Amino acid sequence: MPVIELLQLPVPGQTLGPDREIRIEEFTMQVYLQLLGQSRSELLTRNWTNFSTHHITIPMLKDRLFAYGCPISGSKSQLIDRLRKFAADRDHWAV
After folding, report:
1. For residues 56 and 80, is the Cβ–Cβ distance under 8 A?
2. Which of 6, 38, 40, 65 is deepest in the core (most CB within 10 A)?
């Protein structure tokens, strides 16, 4: 079952204007969840760590993380987790 996960991230390389507003773009990942034998309520409350992504490559993730000054080593799932954490912590966005 594919699920679309949408991350809001700052546009890389932008220069802040006088209003100090950070422009945001959306980064979309299509995630395929492991759904074997689970009820709808289990699916809605589960912490999704067992997934696979098919439309995102490791080089794409590394390029995005590099643009934000984040570490680029690790497995695909580690890179995705790092990008999710970066997206969630807007106080540390530096452009």
Report:
1. yes
2. 65
AA identity, residue 73: S
Residue 95 near residue 12, CB atoms below 8 Å: yes
Q: What is the pLDDT of residues 8-37, one digit of tens each?
A: 899 888 877 788 888 888 888 876 655 545
* Pairing mode of beta strands 2-10, 24-33: antiparallel
**Domain spans of the chain, in order of start:** 2-92
For 80, the token pair is 């995705």
Residue 66 has pLDDT above 90, yes or no: yes
The token duo for 57 is 């490559």
